[in-house]
Write a structure and sequence with these properties.
heterodimer, A: alpha/beta, Rossmann fold, 6-stranded mixed β-sheet, 4-stranded antiparallel β-sheet, B: alpha/beta, 8-stranded mixed β-sheet, 31% helix
């Protein structure tokens, strides 16, 4: 998969993303790290075909995704690339039970009726939920963390080639974040799934990524292996970001 | 003579009444805040952290009820006071709470300075010009841009808004400041600015002590000198920061500290851990120790007898049969 120079101009010419280029290989875990307003989510929306870039291309398996035609090609794209968003509440229809959002996956995968129940339960178990706690409930009856876990469970059922996850675990307790990230890694190892993990948490990105991209004011200012970024940051912005992460074994001077 | 504690809460029970019964969000909690202390309160979401904070300052409104307990703040028994007296003499003056949703605490239609005038008029009969000069002086002291006083909330960034809210809450120099997850919605760089300001509030003597509520242990490592760990409505462990974090005694604290994910070689070496299972339902918590269903070290007594919070050498307190050698 390749993603090329992308540039988006909103009204009043606010440059949200200015010249962001990067590739994601199969089974590669790439983290896109930046502060709010840095253009991370805009980048994600362009990759998911939700926003057309002003200039540049998004290329998936050799094809420009904005050149895909018809429902079939579009469906096939979303079978390949699956998005998870920061606020999963918006992804649910408040009038329908949670079961529906899980069963919708089968419209893309075509699993037979007999396999469906088992897969739903297996997926919920993988994200640390008991099916009796969530099935049959409405979205507002679940916590933000539970709603985020269900979105990850959908990914597990769909097994896309690329997961695009925009702050997918921001509402999940620090004590269980690691287990959800391990699930992404498991999909990567067992099914060759590539992951673009969008986060402001350089600490989390450090542990799970093959490559870390640092984004600031719409541009990717630095990219490298997690160790390079942490131990030898080149850009002043990366250095500042690293210094401002609260550590466990080291205390900030002057605090 | 020993200096008395700033706040002392004993046998606190704060329950929410629901149609299904009481949710025991704070169940028999003792807590002491010394003078010149930053206490970090940590625990998973839903463990009763925020409820405990509201109970401590007597901010209890149905469905939340203070069932039992006494709270003494700076020598005054505030658990016996009614809302009118609390509003007049306690809130904002002795103790201020910056709640979780405080980014929206400012009035969207008022300039910051006009909002400050409203708030201060509730407590004192200071004139407008006195309030303005006091606010300007305070913003300067805390390295906040004085110009921002004449702006509307929407003109401020998230971090600036949060710092302004904290500055307004401490304008009357309350002895105790309680901040509940003040930085969870902020980026790391903005977070550090807010933390720096909180440290300055204590260093300059504007406030005496602070309670910082969060589930981010790494933040507490930076700013707290005492840490209290809460689990399912009860205190699991409490003690000086270094002791609790680097020599945890309670199995829950041990899991919590080993689930910390910070970009450090020590963490990389031990690998990423997370705590299996979910916290119990506080409508019907397990008998005995509330952590035993998730505990790897549980022995038979843990199922039936609730462990008391006892000293384990030094000043560290732990509520665990195994750690305190009982059973």
């Amino acid at each position: 998969m390749k993603i090329f120079t992308v540039g988006l101009f909103k009204r009043r010419e606010i440059v949200a993303v200015d010249d962001a280029s990067f590739d994601v290989e199969p089974a590669e875990f790439v983290s896109l790290v930046g502060e709010s307003g840095s253009g991370k989510t805009t980048t994600a929306r362009m990759i998911l075909r939700l926003l057309q870039p002003t200039s540049g291309q998004v290329i998936c398996e050799g094809r420009d995704v904005f050149g895909l035609k018809g429902i079939e090609e579009s469906k096939s794209y979303y079978r390949t690339v699956h998005g998870i968003f920061q606020d999963p509440y918006a992804a649910y229809n408040p009038l329908h039970k949670i079961d529906r959002v899980l069963n919708q996956v089968f419209e893309l995968t075509g699993h037979s009726g007999a396999e469906r129940d088992g897969l739903v339960k297996e997926a919920l178990k993988e994200v640390g939920l008991r099916h009796e706690d969530v099935l049959g409930k409405y979205p507002h009856e679940l916590s933000g963390g539970q709603r985020q876990r269900i979105m990850v469970a959908r990914c597990y059922m769909l097994k896309p080639k690329l997961i695009l996850a925009d702050e997918p675990i921001s509402m999940i307790d620090a004590s269980t974040k690691a287990s959800i990230l391990r699930l992404f890694s498991k999909l990567r190892d067992e099914h060759g799934t590539a992951v673009i993990f969008i986060t402001h948490d350089l600490g989390l990105a450090y542990y799970v990524s093959d490559e870390v991209l640092i984004m600031s004011q719409g541009s990717i200012v630095e990219k490298g292996s997690p160790d390079d970024i942490m131990n030898h940051p080149q850009h002043t912005y990366t250095r500042k970001l690293r210094e401002d992460i609260p550590l466990f074994y080291r205390k900030w001077p002057g605090f | 003579m020993k200096k008395t504690a700033l706040l002392e809460a004993q046998a606190l029970k704060a329950y929410y009444s629901t149609r299904q019964g009481y949710i025991k969000a704070v169940d028999n909690v003792d807590l002491t805040i010394d003078r010149d202390m930053t206490l970090g309160l940590a625990g998973e979401s839903g463990c009763g952290k925020s409820t405990l904070m509201n109970a401590l300052m007597m901010n209890v409104k149905p469905p939340l009820h203070l069932m039992e307990g006494t709270i003494v703040l700076d020598g005054r028994v505030i658990s016996k006071m009614d809302r009118t007296d609390l509003k007049k003499d306690v809130w904002g003056v002795l103790v201020s709470l910056v709640p979780q949703s405080s980014l929206n605490a400012l009035m969207p239609t008022k300039r910051i300075i006009d909002f400050i005038k409203d708030v201060i008029h509730h407590h004192t009969d200071a004139s407008d010009s006195e309030i303005v000069s006091r606010a300007r002086k305070r913003f300067e002291e805390l390295n906040l841009p004085v110009d921002s006083l004449s702006l509307y909330p929407h003109e401020l960034s998230g971090g600036m808004k949060q710092r302004a809210v904290i500055a307004v809450s401490t304008l009357l120099n309350p002895k105790l400041l309680i901040v509940d997850e003040p930085t969870s919605a902020l980026d790391v760089s903005t977070q550090k600015q807010v933390l720096r300001m909180l440290v300055d509030l204590r260093k300059t003597g504007i406030i005496e002590s602070m309670i910082f509520v969060t589930h981010d242990i790494a933040i507490l490592r930076q700013i707290a000198n005492w840490i209290t760990i809460m689990y399912a409505g009860k205190i699991a462990e409490s003690g000086p920061t270094e002791d609790v974090l680097f020599e945890p005694k309670h199995p829950y604290t041990i899991s919590l500290t080993s689930a910390v994910v910070t970009p450090e070689p020590e963490v990389r070496e031990r690998g990423l851990a997370s705590i299996p299972g979910e916290p119990p339902d506080l409508l019907d918590p397990p008998k005995g120790c509330r952590f035993y269903p998730r505990c790897t070290k549980a022995i038979s007594i843990c199922r039936s007898v609730e462990p008391p919070l006892v000293k384990t050498g030094g000043s560290q307190l732990v509520a665990c049969h195994v750690a305190s050698g009982g059973g």
